From TrEMBL:
Domain Aminotransferase class V: 96-299
Record's protein name: Aminotransferase V
Keywords from the named record: Aminotransferase, Membrane, Pyridoxal phosphate, Transferase, Transmembrane, Transmembrane helix
Domain of life: Bacteria
The organism of origin for this protein: Caulobacter mirabilis
Cross-referenced Pfam families: Aminotran_5
Gene3D superfamilies: Aspartate Aminotransferase, domain 1 (3.90.1150.10), Type I PLP-dependent aspartate aminotransferase-like (Major domain) (3.40.640.10)
C-alpha cells in the first residue's frame, strides 16, 4: 500500500498514526472541493445551488455504495450527536417504555446528547460493565427499554461490540437499536441493513479521511416511515422549494431529518474522500492495517498487541502512563484516551514506519 501514500497529503514529520482521530487529507478531496463548491460559486453565484445540492446527493450515493442500503436511507448531519438527537426525538417515549440504554464507554458526546433527551421524557441508563459481552445487554434490555445505542468499535479500547446480537435483543423487547460506527466505517467492512439495527450514526473525519463536518444518519425505511422529527426546516420538507409556510409535509425518506439550509463544503470534501477509500476497498484497508500491526507485534515479541486477537477495530490501544518520549523522538503523531495510548495505521502508512514504531515501543 506504500504506493498509495502519494494520494494523501500526509502531515510532515514522523509516522502519522491518527486515523482514529483525523485521517490524512486525500488529494482528491481538495480537487473535489474546487469542482463541486468553489467553481460553481465563482461562476454562478446564487445559481450554484443546483451544483451544490448535486454534490450532497453525491455524498449520499457514496455512503450507500460503501456502507449499504440506498442513498434515500442517508441524511447529512453536522455531527453524530445531532443525528442521534434528531432520530430519537422523532420517536417520543410511550407509556413506561422510556429508558435509553448505552455504555459508559461510549464517546462522551453521545452520552451528552442522550442526557438531553430526558427533557422529552426519556431516561438515560449507562451500563458500567463490559459492553462487548452480549450478556451485558441481555440483562439490561427489557420492557422499559425504548432504545439501545451501542458503539461498533469503542474509541478507548478498539474493542468491537456484538451489534447484530444487541439489535436482535432490542427487537425482541420491542425497542429500537442504533449503532455508532464512527470508529469502524472505512476500516471494517460494513453493510448497515444486514446488521439488524434501526439506525446508524457516523462521521467522515476518521478512517474515511473526509474531514470535519460531514456527519450522517442512516435510518431503516421501516423506522423512517414512522419517525416525526421535531427539529425540522425547509430541507426536511417533501419539496423544499415550495415555500408555503402553512403547509409542511415530511420528506418521504431520511431527508426528513435534514433541517434547515445545509452546509455543502464538508460533504463535497467527504464524497471525494469516500471515493478514494472505496477505490482502495475497505477489505484492503483492513488488511494493510493488520499487516502493519503484525509487524509491530512481531518486532516487539507480542509485548504490546496481539494482531491475531479477534474483535478489535483498527487502533492499537496500549495501557501506558507517562509521556512516551521514544515515540515522540521519532516524530510520531499519536494521542491518548485516559490511560490508553492510541496508534492507528492507514493505507498511507508504510512498513518502514511500522518498524520505526516497533523500535520506539521496544524502548518503552
Amino acid at each position: 500500500m506504500s504506493d498509495l501514500r502519494g494520494a494523501f497529503e500526509v502531515p510532515p514529520g514522523g509516522p502519522y498514526l491518527l486515523a482514529h482521530s483525523v485521517g490524512a487529507l486525500p488529494r482528491a478531496a481538495r480537487a473535489g472541493l474546487e469542482t463541486a463548491v468553489l467553481a460553481p460559486w465563482s461562476g454562478k453565484g446564487g445559481d450554484a445551488w443546483g451544483d451544490w445540492l448535486g454534490a450532497i446527493d453525491g455524498f449520499r450515493d457514496a455512503l450507500a455504495g460503501l456502507l449499504g442500503g440506498t442513498a434515500a436511507d442517508y441524511c447529512p448531519q453536522p455531527n453524530l450527536s445531532a443525528g442521534l438527537f434528531r432520530l430519537l426525538s422523532a420517536l417520543p417515549p410511550e407509556g413506561e417504555r422510556r429508558e435509553i440504554l448505552a455504555s459508559d464507554q461510549s464517546f462522551a458526546s453521545i452520552g451528552f446528547a442522550l442526557k438531553g433527551l430526558e427533557a422529552l421524557g426519556f431516561r438515560l441508563r449507562l451500563l458500567t460493565v463490559d459492553p462487548t459481552a452480549v450478556e451485558t445487554w441481555a440483562e439490561a434490555i427489557g420492557p422499559q427499554t425504548a432504545a439501545v445505542v451501542a458503539m461498533h468499535v469503542h474509541s478507548n479500547s478498539s474493542a468491537v461490540g456484538p451489534i447484530a446480537e444487541i439489535a436482535a435483543l432490542a427487537r425482541e423487547a420491542g425497542a429500537i437499536a442504533i449503532v455508532d460506527v464512527a470508529q469502524s466505517a472505512g476500516v471494517l467492512p460494513l453493510n448497515l441493513p444486514t446488521l439488524g439495527v434501526d439506525g446508524a450514526i457516523g462521521s467522515c473525519v476518521k478512517w474515511l479521511c473526509g474531514g470535519p463536518g460531514a456527519g450522517w444518519l442512516w435510518v431503516s425505511p421501516t423506522l423512517c416511515a414512522r419517525a416525526k422529527p421535531i427539529e425540522i426546516g425547509w430541507f426536511s420538507h417533501v419539496d423544499p422549494f415550495e415555500f408555503d409556510i402553512r403547509d409542511f409535509r415530511y420528506a418521504p425518506d431520511a431527508r426528513r431529518f435534514w433541517g434547515g439550509t445545509p452546509s455543502v463544503a464538508p460533504y463535497a470534501l467527504a464524497a471525494a474522500a469516500i471515493g478514494v477509500i472505496a477505490g482502495v476497498g475497505v477489505e484492503a484497508v483492513r488488511a494493510h492495517n493488520r499487516a502493519l500491526i503484525a509487524r509491530v507485534s512481531e518486532r516487539t515479541n507480542g509485548r504490546w498487541f496481539d494482531p491475531d486477537r479477534s474483535g478489535f477495530g483498527g487502533t492499537i490501544c496500549i495501557a501506558a502512563e507517562g509521556s512516551n518520549p521514544s515515540l515522540t523522538a521519532i516524530g510520531a503523531k499519536f494521542d491518548r484516551r485516559g490511560d490508553q495510548l492510541r496508534l492507528s495505521f492507514h493505507v498511507y502508512n508504510t512498513a518502514d514506519e511500522a518498524d520505526r514504531v516497533a523500535e520506539a515501543l521496544a524502548r518503552v
